[in-house]
Amino acid sequence: WIQGELPEQKYEWMNQYGRNINGAKGYVAEGLFTQAEIDDMARWESLSAANKAITPKPFASQFGTVKAGDIKYKDLNNDGQIDAYDQTYISRGDVPTTVYGFGFTVGWKDLSVGMMFQGVAGAERVLNGSSINPFNGGGGSGNLYSNIDDRWTPENPRQDVFWPRMGDKAVANNEQASTWWLRDMSFLRLKNLELGYTLPQRWTTKIGIRGCRLFARGTNLLTFSNFKLWDPELETTDGLRYPQMKSVSVGFSINFNN
Description:
The chain is mainly β. It has helices spanning 35-45, 49-54, 129-132, 201-204; strands at 24-26, 29-32, 71-73, 88-91, 98-108, 111-121, 124-126, 182-184, 187-198, 209-224, 247-256. The protein has a five-stranded antiparallel β-sheet, with no helix packed on it. The longest helix has 11 residues, at 35-45.
């Protein structure tokens, strides 16, 4: 192994070499268990030891007793058990590949508009499933986010929901770091906006003013991102940081005649 790298791991997919130094490890999510898969496992477990030996196991054992709607992880080494040997690098990290910005100021007669945008691309983050999952503290405690309805239920067994099955207490299987919780943190933000209006001099010179400009300024007014739960610029996996502040101010500047 190369000096400075982690030692050679048991399986190739566990090696750090060739991957981003900020990369995050976790499991590869293959979707959510269906009720049919859970029923198949129940039938397999009811078999005798002799029949189990000749009957393929429906899926690998995971974390605790899994139910329909729980996250299903890929058994990378095909040993029938999801464990640390099935973890691989699933994210390049939250340091973006591209940081950019652009802006402009335009004027027309007595009006002016100035905008400044900033953005990043190529930033990824694995959300902390044990922190953001509702009821993670047991007894009904835990944060509830605005997309709480976007979840798996027996009546809504979709595979593209944000939240897997929820229980009245933490579901350890669904809190593992995995591609299920991997999110793109790229964003484009309207960082600054200024609107201005200069009063015509034919109005101001009559009262001894050479120039008067009215303006309105805004900061962090709009953010465009596929990630909606919190400000994607925050370096957090659970949103528990103070967000960027939006601000709006109005004012005027006056130049008096000498």
